[in-house]
Write the structure tokens for this entry.
Amino acid sequence: MFAVCRTEELPPGESARVVADVPIAVFNADGEYYAVDDTCTHQDASLSEGFLEGCFVECPLHAAFFDLRTGMPTCLPAKRPVRTHAVTVDNGVIYVDVTPRRTAGQDAALEQESVA
Amino acid sequence: MRTITVVGGSLGGYSAAQQLRAQGFDGRLVVVGTEVHLPYDRPPLSKDFLKGQIGTADLALGEQQDFDELEAEWRLGEFAARLRPADAGIELYSGEQIGTDGVVIATGASTRVLPGSAGVGGVHTLRTLEDAQALREELTTGRPNVVVIGAGFIGAEVASSCAALGLDVTIVEAAELPLARVLGTRLASACAALHSEHGVAVRFGAGVEELRSAAGHVVGVRLATGEELPADVVVAGIGVQPNTGWLSGSGLSLHDGVLCDSGGVTDLSNVVAVGDVARVFRPDLGRNVRTEHWATANGQPRIAVRNLLDGITNEQHTDMPYFWSDQYGVRIQFAGFVHPEDDVRIIDGDIEDRCFLAQYERDGRPVGVLAFNHPRGFGRARRQLSRPTLDVATS
Ligand SMILES: Cc1cc2nc3c(=O)[nH]c(=O)nc-3n(C[C@H](O)[C@H](O)[C@H](O)COP(=O)(O)OP(=O)(O)OC[C@H]3O[C@@H](n4cnc5c(N)ncnc54)[C@H](O)[C@@H]3O)c2cc1C
Ligand code: FES
């Protein structure tokens, strides 16, 4: 668990970047908090600098969109999901779990890998 | 359509092949490309690759699995010599004929070469992986004196990368203020200032008179002012021309690119064009535009392929041009259609700090946005750009 910041420091539409083992981007998407690996899976742009639209973030470099709930890209040029992380709020402080969470989309992708 | 041939195996061609499959085309897909490599990315060639921070493998536009998934027949190292609409075919330089029902033209552009540089060692242009490898080899042998000719985005990036390699660099540009016609004087000045700030010597408003060589290798560049700059390596970033030569006699309209309607469809409904080679009609501007940006080559195929598969223009290109450039540690991002006379307003940050967001406005409406090291603000401002209106409508 990593303390990110206080809730009032991350208003809706904003993002924060924390550096754990890998950099993680934390978003406030209209009141819901999400966290994903900060580095885009396409090249090395920082997703915390991307444009937030609902619960999707647009990569600031080549404009791939990622669904923050699942980490899945919704359009090219990114093809691989970013890992998602659990976010909790306790006593007005936002925490992020640095161990990646497995999501349905990623499970499917992983399953395919193990079948192949 | 049973067979579709994509001509050009770089970003535009690869994106078109992906879109063909994504949009349900399950017939025979042939990709013809003169380069022997699977699709790779060009932007890093003048940046991290030239600086030696990444290698050839990092340039790949996809992984092997991505290429396999396309189930395409790759004709790499093959040159499409002719398009023959009458007998529905593409003729390769090798003599092979590919019978095809549809064609995506994605042949991009080639660099202009400096007059008088033929056969002179040490003179480079930069477009392909081989160009970048050859240039990098010379830059890392000894400690050469470098002269970059042309201070557009590619020239500026090369100068920046050479400076990062610790070399002595001079950048020469015929215009008094490089990029002024693209960005307007105020923001062009901000870009131009980056060079001298980082120890690169500048000669703006100075035409090149002659390359000086000795024993087949360049030794200097003589300017119209009479000054002679010593040079062991010369890089010319003086623009590109679209690769349309192979289409002469095909009946397609060619004029600095392949002329297309607003949906990327050429004079023939089963032939579309995308990327650097395509000159697309923009109803919102009332004219044709050819765009030499990564995002265009990546994005146009979605619409062009749809229209190709539909057999009619059902969707138009309406995206705002977008490009980025990395120079001296500054990420420059630009979007929109601007005139040099548009008003420029700094909406966040400071030009002096090299971190700002500037908006171009016409009749009080935002028409373009330029950012230095301000990706978040840029993404937001880009979305608020007004669609350009026909000049006739505003006058
Ligand atoms: C060094 C460099 C840095 C760049 N940096 C940036 C940047 O930072 N930001 C940005 O927005 N854009 C940048 N660009 C521009 C971007 O890379 C181009 O817009 C993009 O590559 C265009 O893709 P394309 O597929 O249309 O054309 P190209 O990439 O030119 O590809 C065309 C392909 O077709 C092949 N071909 C040509 N003729 C034939 C034929 N007759 N038969 C078969 N094949 C043929 C060519 O060999 C080539 O492989 C940069 C370009 C360069 C060169
Ligand atoms: S780096 Fe994110 S889409 Fe390319």
About this structure: The mean pLDDT of chain A is 87.
